[in-house]
Amino acid sequence: MLLRPSALSALAFAIQSAAKFDYPADRTLSYVLREKRVGSLDRQLVAEGYYAWLRHRLSVEAIAGDGAKFDAIALAALARQFRRRVKVPPGEEDRYAKFLKADEALGPHPRRELPTWLWDRLGVQYGNEERLVLADSLLEPASFDLRVNTLKAKRDAILGRLQKEGFPDARATPLSPVGIRLPHRVDISRHPLFEDGTLEVQDEGSQLLAHIVGAKRGEMVIDFCAGAGGKTLALAAMMASTGRLYACDVSERRLDNLGPRLARSGASNVQTMRIENENDKRLDKFIGKADRVLVDALCSGLGTLKRNPDLKWRQSPTSVKELVEKQKSILAAASRLVRPGGRLVYATCSVLTEENEKIAESFLEANPGWIIVPSSLRGEEAGESRFAQLLPHRDGCDGFFAAVFERSTSED
What we know:
By secondary structure, this protein is α/β, with parallel strands linked by helices. The protein is 44% helix and 15% strand. The protein is built from 16 helices and 12 strands.
């Protein structure tokens, strides 16, 4: 694999541009590829080197050395990712060889690539042995999961078609009854099954969160933090496009992105609703009326580090503390909309207890009219587990948490 000087320069610029973590990683990379006019021969190398730095920042910067310039960090990232498979530009051979040797000498801790505060918290929560396995799993590439839109087709039929049409490695997801998994990301944006809404890109864990809501035909369901609507579309399919499904979000742009996907899906029971905040007065008309409300809350996203490695550098103890206060407020506001006997699902894609179990326990303590419904995201009976959780090292998908609450039918 040939590393051209222009590609090394573009990679160094990408790392420099992302170093403050002001913007999402994919947005920064798109800007760099466009700004530097990176050619087709170099795009893959620049992209892989960039994500290698994001995933392996601690070890890459240890390899490069204290105070290293961005071109050295870029070269160290390539050494960490590709080792001897890269032919470097003339004049860089000695430095690259030095970085390869430094990589081989790294100890076990830098290779886990987690900021100290997060490393410590995971140790407290899971113990050292499980922390090591979890941290290692977060460095592995994410699988590429698809959801079959059951308004249009059944999974077995679509899986068989994909296997015959150039995707022999396609498999049914082990937990989601409507998911298909590919080992690597592929561009399906122009595939007929994507264009007609039969397939949607959605991680298996996200599919299971929609499943745990248990939305039924004819019900009134609210997706309180709908975002771009992946779970909304999954809920619409579960409801067989009947009843009423409201997709609420504070971002008009995200809801606009749902529009084309909704049109492709064939669902006719979805209504989008932009709100100013969780206490928007326009929500008052729903108070005490919804059969089910999903709160896929704004969170740290630390369960998704396989596909969003920049998040571990963009979050901090302070940002998590701020998120916790917001999560409490959103959950309290959403709970008002649930009818007596109805259900409320609180979910995150975080692996931190302060965003998960502690939020759920705090809600129960402040709201005696609610009970917890033991639940699972893994297909088995909930048993004694009060809350549902998916973990990357155990379940092979993003990390998710869910708590299912039921509102009492009495007024006491």
